[in-house]
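Budget justification, computational time. The allocation requested in the original proposal was used primarily to generate structure tokens for proteins on the priority list. As evidence of use, we reproduce two of the resulting records. The first is shown immediately below.
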Amino acid sequence: MPWLSLIISNVVLAALIAFSAWFMQRRLRRPAVARILWLLVLVKLVTPPAVSVPIVELPSTMACALGLCNCPQHALAPPVVRGALPWVLLAVWSAGAGATAWTACCRWSQFQRLAAHAQPAPSEWQSLAARLAGELSLRRPPELFAVPGRLPPLVVAGWRRPRLLLPAALLGQLNHSQSEALLLHELVHLKRGDHLVRLLELAAGVFFWWLPVVGTIGRQLRACEETCCDAAVVACLPQARRDYARLLLNVIDFADPLPRQAAPQATAMSATSDLEQRLRGILDATPGSRRKWPAAVVVALACATLPCGLDCEFVRGTVTAATPVDGWYRGCEPAAGGNKFAE
């Protein structure tokens, strides 16, 4: 089952990158580097390897347990395993992937019904967004809409241009400094391509619906994105630190919490994870100096693992007397051609 070994290889290597991303985010407090690493985790999960790297030789008894041996004792068992097991696993995966995709489509349809009531944002907001987009050199400025309801500001990928949805009831409660910080925060999301990362995150969630940590990876990635946008806003508007901190609290207090992943393709501003740490980062005016080369080395190593795949071979040994162990036989040896776990 070559596809099974490919999936196992991708999951193992993605787990190594995920550990480095967690270390950068939680221990070294480098959200920008952690964001790149979390993104590489998703890319690794959904891309096939191009280079095979042999790592370890497994005992021949594992070949028998997996049904990959050609031993006389198991002459009848392997065809059954090879013939039935792949189709059973494929059917289970297809059912889960279909259910996950259908759920995402239903939630997106509900969100689209809400967005159907959107109206063009007021002219002063349009002018402010155009000016900030020009300062950020955005090639495709977003379409700005005001929507009813108590929801957070959202960035959504569109067919022609990305869309920026702002709650109409919140617009009149903000002063000029907070309005500028809000638009700048969302435009930085667009500048960094976070609205496109949501599509990659959705694809990984559909293909790896059976892997619980995929949801955790998405949440950590979004937390890093929010922290990076906070840093960008503070760098552009250092005099508006306190107004921006109040804005964040106002948005969280205003937005009626949406159901979990109600809009899986949208990037919302109302992430409340590590709220105290975000506020401290916004209000802290002390410039930090950090060496860049350790982070560059970690990212380079993570990028080097993207085209790699793990290849496990079975040990060739002498055939000994067959001894039944839990329904299998010890001492079996693969056929003369050898079998690879990755073949």
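The second record produced under the same allocation is shown here.
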Amino acid sequence: MFWRLFLTYLLFVAATALVVGVLHIPAAVAFIVAVALPIAYVLARRFTHQLADLTEGARRMAEGDLTHDLPTTGRPEVATLARSLNAMTARISASLAQVERDRQQLRTILSGMVEGVVAFDNNLQILFANDRAAQLLEFVPEQVVGSKLWELTRQRAVQEVAEKALKGQGPYRQELDWKGPEDRSLAVYVSRLPGPNSPGAVMVLHDVTDLRRLENLRQDFVANVSHELKTPLANIKSSVEVLQDGAADDPNSLKMFLGEIGDQAERLEQLIKDLLSLARIESGAIAMEFEAVSVEEAVHTCLDRHRTRAEAKGQTLNGVALGDSPPDLAVWVDEEGLAQILDNLVDNAIKYTPHGGRITVRWRVLSQQVLLEVEDTGIGIPDADLPRVFERFYRVDKARSRELGGTGLGLAIVKHLVQTMRGSVMVASEVTKGTVFRVALPRAAPV
């Protein structure tokens, strides 16, 4: 458009010059040059100014400034080009904003995962690592990008897994165990990044420490149950064999071995009952009916059930209210569950307290809870064994426990019942002086 106007103008000037040129040619040439040059200069300057604006805008866009808008005034051709560039910039800006939102969303998702995620290239240089990976491998996540994998963790096994995965084609899996402030087991999965020329791999770390601990507990539990069942069964079998070999003809031997069979059968029955009870409590299958239960009544009822056994050993049983405990003090529990807790604790105290000892059950108000204490003057528990007394089948003195008829499940049942009723249980002991179990249970609101 600009050049058409300029040429039209030149033709007009030339026609005028011809008229003048008929009279004088040098004068006509001078006239054309004198008139055309200033106007051409003005028009060219306006055009080059608009091109300079376009050039500056393009430079700023190339440097990443997508907020700059080019002016759309001036010549139509230049204005159309400026509008096209502005529209292109807007689309690029929107696309980059969407990419950033997607990146932040992906980072948030990866940061919230319970698994650790580490991406690295073929030279083991870190491209990304989430917070969970930093916890498992013990590094600072903000300082890892660009670092080498071996610079992040002291565990050589992690680097070896990454190297093996990079050498192979398919996913690679390995489980790692290492010692440290906390023993840890990790399941490590490494997959190559997709593409014909894979740029690296992604490592996923899953902490299986608790899973392995539970697996070990399960194995120990099965072994302990097998052992506990085998002992009375072996005694029953040997007694039957002796009777079959002729001891049944002797009335005294018959009575003795039948008594042994009866005792071992009763032990088996109690063991099975405790196993079923513990399984129901742990699975939540046991139906509990929470209600206000009188503490004083529950304690004295329990002591009455065990008084005959205690008196046979010359032991004294006492129930004592401490402090300003009101006579109508009650706990919000399942009545049968509370009875089972007290029975197990008092039964243990009687078993491990020598002849002439004393067992005392005390209770007092503790803020919004009621504290029940079962104290004995028995043989006590060594400090090294105290943390494990609530484990299933754990016994401080295995031979003595079996001699006294314990199943090794009583305190485990106590712990799970107390926790189910939103309480807590603790133990303190001193060898040869006695043991005290403290059970805190929710206090029932006064009626």
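A brief technical remark on that second record: The chain has four domains: 2-103, 113-207, 212-283, 290-442.
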